[in-house]
Amino acid sequence: SIFVPFGVILFALGGWVAIPEIADLFKSKKEKRNLDNLIVIALTIVGIFYLLFSLLVIGVSGNETSSDALSGLVPFLGEKIMFIGGLFGLVAVAASFLVLGNYLKNSLRYDYKIPSFLSASIAVFAPLVLFLLGFREFIAVIGIVGIIVGVIEGIVIVLLYRAAKEKGQREPEYSLSIPKFVSHAVIGILVVGTLVELFF
Asked: pTM to 2 decimals?
């Protein structure tokens, strides 16, 4: 069942939307050379925290582990864990919402020339509309969003990388050397993982 959480994992690790916002904080070309290290360090730290969280929850609740992770802990750690976990969850979701919302707003504004107020309104109210339409199963929602956004953007990023390597005319702040077969393998994993999760 390795592909069952595929969309959720893509959603959880899909932090590339924050990279342009972070890159804007670096002014000089010399400073931007540190961006690659920052990306690797951030991804490593986040991955370790996710792994530790998963192991701790499963270690405590075992077969009683729930899809939201928290309610399955109540019989073992009491009702207060729901409040504490909910508080941390609210902060985490709010932070993700701010980054993703800002990214969506900027995409609508600069890529599709939608006025600033309307693009901000879409970014803010789209999740509320989806909630009112019945999309309320947390894991299912982030799984679907992870598949749609993660796979499409993941493939686009790989294709942009290949195009930049072959046709780019400016000297980049830093450069990667990834063989073509690795690029094809990444696209293959994204497509296969999506098909498996959607159909099974």
From this structure: 0.74
Rg (CA), the chain: 19
Give the torsion sign (CA, 189, 190, 194, 195): negative
Q: What is the DSSP track for 135-187?
A: ---HHHHHHHHHHHHHHHHHHHHHHHHHHHHHH--S--SS-----HHHHHHHH
Whether the CB-CB separation of 46 and 15 falls below 8 Å is answered with yes
CA distances 83 to 32, 48, 71, 78, 89, Å, are 40, 24, 10, 10, 10
Greatest alpha-carbon pair distance for the chain in Å reads 60
Over the stretch 124-183, which tens digit does the pLDDT of each residue have? 898 888 888 888 887 888 888 888 888 888 898 999 999 998 888 887 777 788 899 999
Contact at 8 Å (CB) between 153 and 113? Answer: no
Q: In this structure, what DSSP letter does residue 113 have? A: -
Tokens for 136, please give them.
């309320």
The C-alpha angle with vertex 126 and arms to 19 and 143, in degrees rounded to 5, equals 65
Helices 6-13 and 180-199 sit at what angle, rounded to 10 degrees? 130
DSSP state of 26: -
Contacts (Cβ under 8 Å, ≥6 apart) of 185: none
